[in-house]
Amino acid sequence: MPSLFEPQELTALRDLLSPGPPQTPAFGCQQSAALLQMYAPGARPRPGAVCSDELDVDSHWHFHDMHQLLFAFEGAVELEGDRGRHLIPRQVAAWIPAGAPHRASIHRVRSGSIFFTVDMVRDPETRIRTVTVSALMREMMREAMRWPLQGPDGPLRTSFFKTMAGLCSEWIEREADLFLPTSNDPRLTRALDVTARRADLKLSDVSRHAGMSERSLRRHLKAETGMTWEAYRQRSRLLQAVSLLSETDGTIVQIAATCGFESPSAFAKAFRVAMGEVPSAYRNRVTGTPVDR
């Protein structure tokens, strides 16, 4: 069986996390995904952290035998699951349940993951989701990095991860509506990619780029993803806005315009629906910038 991660940058991490070769899953999931075991067969799984600061990689499809909480301390990580792509910018985390096939793009971004055994966090939905991050969650993620997954046991470590797992059950209920679907149709893929890159384009421009009529693009996109083109464009704009609010000094008015919103009030309304708070409150919470900017 071929290696799970071909890029050489992941070899050391693969060897650390999977002492044995990747195994083909015995249960239904994406056919190309392989199991990346977090512990060697026979070893007792326990929670712990994995730092991914130095990775520069687009991983292959895989899934874990533990729950994963993925977080970018700076910049953003892109995560793709079987239902679509998720952008994981600073202050938004990805919850990846055990058994959920996924692949990640991590390019030298300060980031890390916390792994929990399946019995520690109950997740009846078993689906990848993006969740908003509180100040407490951010600091616990940062503190958890002191206990690597393969590091020694200790009472403080055990107590810390038990508490974090309990809080995680609440955190994953605060979902951010930042899900972007993907498509197996090359024409739709072209349409979605250019829509995500260019906030200024109209449907007629996107249709020409994809080589489809507007009616055909609408019909196929709705049938395959369950989303309208307008809804996809809206989420793309919000993803861009989240990054700009976290990583730049642009004003709310400037960011609304850059992301293609008709007005700051329209931007605030859409942002509140997706994130549960207005842009100024989000920026204040994650960066400390005064709320009137």
Describe the structure.
- A hairpin with a 2-residue loop joins strand 6 and strand 7.
- The protein contains ten helices and twelve strands.
- The chain is globular.
- The longest helix has 19 residues.
- The strands form three sheets. The chain has a five-stranded antiparallel beta sheet with strand order 2-10-5-8-11, with helices on one face. It has a five-stranded antiparallel beta sheet with strand order 3-9-6-7-12.
- Helix content is 39%, strand content 18%.
- The N and C termini lie far apart (54 Å).
Strand content: 15-25%
Write down the oligomeric state: single chain
Number of helices: 10
Whole-angstrom Rg: 20 Å
Distance between the termini: 54 Å
Question: What percent of the residues sit in helical stretches (DSSP H or I)?
Answer: 25-40%
Q: Give the strand order of the largest sheet, numbering strands 1, 2, ... along the chain.
A: 2-10-5-8-11
* Classification by helices and strands: alpha+beta
- The helix/strand series, from N terminus to C terminus, equals HEEEEEEEEEEEHHEHHHHHHH
Q: Which segments are poorly predicted (pLDDT under 50) over 5 or more consecutive residues?
A: 1-10, 14-29
